[in-house]
Specification:
Blueprint (H helix, E strand, L loop, with lengths): L1 H31 L9
Length: 41
């Protein structure tokens, strides 16, 4: 039980920044209209 919980926590720690970065990139692409970074900010 403890090992499974530790595995889930470690997975969340590893996945969270990757997921956040992917969401951020998608959000920037959508707000930009896909013309690179920082054009509409």
């Amino acid at each position: 039980m403890m090992r499974r919980l530790l595995l889930i926590i470690c997975g969340a720690i590893i996945c969270a920044p990757v997921l956040a970065a992917a969401i951020l990139v998608l959000a920037v692409e959508f707000t930009d209209g896909g013309q690179g970074f920082g054009t509409d900010i």
